[in-house]
Amino acid sequence: MVSEQLQQARDFEARYMPFIPDTERPVFHVTGGIGWINDPNGFSCYRGEYHLFYQYHPYSTKWGPMHWGHMKTRDFIRWERLPVALAPDTEADRGGCFSGGAVEMPDGRQLLLYTGVYHVRRADGVMEEYQTQCVAVGDGVNYEKYPGNPVLDGKDLPEGNSMLDFRDPKLWLEPDGTYRCVVGNRTADGSGAALLFESPDGFHWHYAATLDACRNEYGRMWECPDFFPLDGKQVLLTSPQEMAALGLEFHAGYGAICLLGSWDSEKRQFQREKVHSIDYGIDFYAPQTLESYDGRRIMIAWMQNWTNSNCQPMNARIFGEMTLPRELSIRNGRLVQNPVRELERFHGHRVAYSDVLVSSETNMQGVSGRVLDMTVNVRPAGRGYNWFKLHMAKSGEYATTIRYKPDCSTVRVDRTRCGIRYDVVHVRDFLVRPRDGEIKLRVVMDRHSLELFVNDGEQAATFIIYTPESADSISFEADGAVLVDVEKYELNIP
Ligand code: FRU
Predict the structure, then answer these.
(1) Which are the contacts of 483, defined by CB distance < 8 A and separation ≥ 6?
(2) What is the pTM of this model?
(3) Which ligand 1 atom sits closest to the C-alpha of 66?
(4) pLDDT for 363-380, tens place per residue?
(5) Are residues 289 and 412 in the same domain?
(6) What is each CA distance from 86 to 18, 26, 99, 113, in whole angstroms?
(7) In the structure, what pLDDT confidence band is assigned to residue 1 with cuts at 50, 70 and 90?
(8) Ligand 1 neighbours by CB, cut-off 6 Å
(9) Which pLDDT value is given to residue 170?
(10) Core-most of 191, 442, 453, 490, by most CB within 10 Å?
(11) CA–centroid distance, residue 111 to ligand 1 (Å)
(12) For residue 487, what is the domain's CATH number?
């Protein structure tokens, strides 16, 4: 049954979406139909395709009562828009359908597990938000909410844990048929934790273990956890609120971190070994993964940051987009990310140069554009160099710059002159592995986004720019002398 609220959202899209021309959207990154989006949800395999839902408020470009928008793809590049999947329309989720996961059930149905939110005014007048976990089941287009919702609430939590911050279940099915999910929560010390719950059928759930807890070390509340094996390790991803800055590894505010360790599935024990940031740019939050049909672990994230999300371009009709899906692996004890290999199928016109000597600012014929996949290899020439800069989306007053300094092994992304007229973070520095002055930079650009992958994915840095599309020049500059190889592809996405 399609509720009034869901029908209203679908009608709203049908009526107003046609007014948004394709030129207002990125070419191959996921956007909402209209209005606002945040976290990716339910990123999963279903009937031979990949489904992606997202936090959605169609009615304005600001966050509001959360719906689930819906898209699907076969190649992670070309997406098909599906009708809005969930609206806040039941007792348990009348305040919003927050983030969650999805899985294909053995009987062929698709199970969605999401956070249902409702508000209650306390005796002293304060409004409190309760967060519970709810289920909906469907056929890949339409979903019925389970009458027994919520399937998990405050009563299911360990003593002292918060029922106000209890959200974002990420769901998977174990080979033995057990459903498991990891949920973000807040423990008695006020900081975050990732909790494991189990179910024999997807509808009846119980608490199984606390996988890891923040203990006020990595931010406060842990949002949007994900938990999966990768290359012999176990990975816990989470997006902490209120991070404190630490060196060049963690920046203040909303972060996204990777906890690497080992996992004893029988004893339900996760042993954390290492923690590092997932993305060193500005706009990256709430990543979620799936295991592809051919066994790759693929991650997608919201290409935004809550702190900046009020700083929108004038007259925008859509706000928020997802990152390019990325293939994950573990190398040298770190999470490595690279663009999904499917992107290469869409490589169009190629321009390549090798061993170009760069000292002062240099342009290369044919190297420009705003929708592209470009790899730049840099190595010292002669006595070496103090810094190398790659300027993108450049013209007149505009430029977005990636700078590498070999003496301190730091990369700086700087979008100060990208056209954003708000005083928010525009610069980030991060450490990369020293390689005798060599560095490899791969940049994937899609109109107003820039995703940088350093040294074959050892670091990624993602950010949004507001630069007019006419600013499409690219230049190379060095203090000292470098030899540069460039390989640039246009991307042709039908
Ligand atoms: C993370 C988040 C989630 C929540 C959702 C609400 O960005 O705050 O914790 O489920 O957004 O839209």
Answers:
(1) 355, 356, 357, 358, 378, 379, 380, 381
(2) 0.98
(3) 12
(4) 999 999 999 999 999 999
(5) no
(6) 21, 25, 11, 11
(7) confident
(8) 38-39, 55, 66, 98-99, 115, 167-168, 223-224, 285-286
(9) 98
(10) 453
(11) 20
(12) 2.60.120.560
